[in-house]
Every structure is written in structure tokens, then in C-alpha cells.
Amino acid sequence: MALEVSQKFKGRKRLIFFKWFFLILIILAVSFVGSIYALGRAFRLNKIEVAGNERVSAGDIQTKVTDLLAGGLFPLWPEENILFLSPENIAENIKSQFSAIDQITIRRDFLNRILRINIKERDSWAVWCSEKCFYLDSSGVIFQPAPQFFGDLVLKITDKRAENFNLGDTVIAKETLRKLEGFISGIKNKNSFYVKTAEILPGPTFWLYADSGLKIILDNETDFERALENFQIFTNSFPEKKLQTMDYVDLRFNDRTFYKSLPVF
């Protein structure tokens, strides 16, 4: 009889222990959830500021960031909480959506709960045209639709290769474009030849059209520094009137320069 009472007493104590244990556990869980919720409310993003933009609308960037932050893991731990959001992920997503953006820096102002986005947009080096026209930056990337007719203010490049390019693609290798830019600047500064338009043919081969009517032929394998030297020798070898009758000069070979004169009637 005494043993039976003792077992009932122990069983009751165990039951009371588990009741208190689960009660305390629930209280702690509720307190934790409440704290997270309060923390989320206290550090919820208040404002998104965008600077450095000209081509890209600040409103479009802010809308994109807001949409990204709306997809938090769960409501009590929202992505729009300035403590938990990832500037790296936001920057990567924005760059993938806006091809005109070259660089992006994101800082979090914890005190004022502000996300500060500073962007550097791509420069317009030329207008590149195939089926459509786009602005081309100095790294060879097409990044924004452009008008087909732009006058002589910007170099216009017509691409005649049978390739499909999309917004954000690299259409000319950065190193090749850097050399091509140096050559165009060189013949303008040293020889007063101004390149108005250009064509890209398979290879790629580049046909540069000077304002005098002369066509200059280069390709991807050209030694552009040597080509510039050869062009100076070529232009110094003929009087100005004779140069005006030239159809093209081929500078693709280091030790030879080929040229053709226009027919005289």
C-alpha cells in the first residue's frame, strides 16, 4: 500500500514538472517570437535613396529593390529589415535587370533605416547597329536602345556579322575595342583623319570610314600600334590631293600596306 502511494506521488510530481516545463517553453517561444517581431518593426527599412543615375530611373530601381525585399523568408523575419537584407544580392539583381549600370555600391544607414544606392552608369562610346541600334560602352557592351540617326556627334558602327546579340552582351572584346579606340584617336590627332562610321565584318574585320572618304581596313589580329605607324607613313608618302583619290588602305599586315585608288574618268 505504501509503495502504491509513493508511485502515485512520483507520477504526480512528474506530471507537474512536465506541465511547468512546457509552460515555460511556450512562454520563452512567445517571448522570442515577440522579440523578433519587435526587432523587425524597429529596423524595418524606412527609405531607399538612389544617386549617380541619369539613364536609369531612380523610381525603377526603388521598385525593383522593394519587390526583392518583399520576398522575405517569413513575415516575422522580413528581408526589408535593414539588419538582415543582403546588399550583395540586391546589387547583383539590380545589375542583371539594368544593363546601363556598370558599377553599384550599396550602404546601409542603420540609424535612419535608409538604404543608399550609388550607381555608375556605362559611358556611350559609340552607337552599334545590327537589326536595331544600341549604345556601346568602352568595354564593348551594348546597354541601351539608341536612335538609328545620330548625325556625326557619335561614331556609328554597323555590324554585318550573322550573329544574334542581346542587350547587355559584349559585341567587341574589351581589349580589341581599347586598341581600336586608340587607333581612331591617333589618326585624328596625328593625321587629322576623322572616323565617322565603321563596319564590322566576319573575322572580325573592321572597316573605318574617314570623313575624307578613305576606308581603313583592320582586323582582330592587327598590331594597332604598328598599323598607326604604317598609316602615318602612308599619308606622308602622298600629297593631299592624291590622298583624296584613295579608295582604301589595308593595314592588317605589319610589313606591308596595301591601298587602292579610285578610278579617274
Automatic annotation (TrEMBL):
Primary residence: membrane
Compartment annotation: Membrane
- Tell me the Pfam families matching this sequence: FtsQ_DivIB_C, POTRA_1
Keyword Membrane in annotation:
yes
GO cellular component assignments: membrane
Q: Which GO terms describe its biological process?
A: cell division
Where does the POTRA domain lie? 43-122
Keywords of this entry: Cell cycle, Cell division, Cell membrane, Membrane, Transmembrane, Transmembrane helix
Q: Where is the signal peptide?
A: none
List all membrane-crossing ranges.
Answer: 20-40
| Name the record gives this protein | POTRA domain-containing protein
Instruction: Provide the species name.
Output: Candidatus Niyogibacteria bacterium RIFCSPLOWO2_02_FULL_45_13
